[in-house]
Amino acid sequence: MAGGSTEVTKEIYSVWAVPPEEVRDRIKKIMAALRSEFGGPAFEPHITVVGAISLAPEDALRRFRSACATLAPYPARVTAAARGTFFYQCVFFLIDPIPEVMEASARACNHFGFQSSTPYMPHLSLLYADISDEDKERARQRVEELDKEILGLSFQVSTLALYKTDTEDKSLESWEQVETYHLSGEK
């Protein structure tokens, strides 16, 4: 950097498991219907693997690539539609916490030096919003009406994505995909 400045700008990053295209398309329809009824910003369907962590851009990329290189594709299964207690976990699908899902998160978190204050709960968010508990319950019920066959849906996670995810930005306008990685199966 010119001028000899050694200050490194850090950003907030997250690692997401990206469902296959046909699953993404199906989930996007549910998400769009929920947004039209309850509001909230648009975002890509994903299962958070590593939560928000502050890192320099080069460090985030290095850690992301290193983590992905140790992971093989793994199965995921939707078990229920649920509602949470805060904006980023308003309405979501619970993902079966089978060993492969839990191990992928644990390995990736280890590469990032990420330690959560709460146990990992694999989930796929459908709606980010600050709405009443009554509306959350209506939205949760609406999910099951919109796609009666989605509970029990199984799919393979073979792509992870590194995203900039400034959690202060509830519009999500600053959120940006940095890189995707297709898991090879080599460990």
Automatic annotation (TrEMBL):
InterPro entries, per database record: Cyclic-nucl_3Pdiesterase, Cyclic_Pdiesterase
Keywords: Coiled coil
Coiled-coil parts of chain: 129-156
Pfam families: 2_5_RNA_ligase2
GO molecular function: 2',3'-cyclic-nucleotide 3'-phosphodiesterase activity
Gene Ontology biological process terms, A to Z: cyclic nucleotide metabolic process
Protein name: Cyclic phosphodiesterase-like
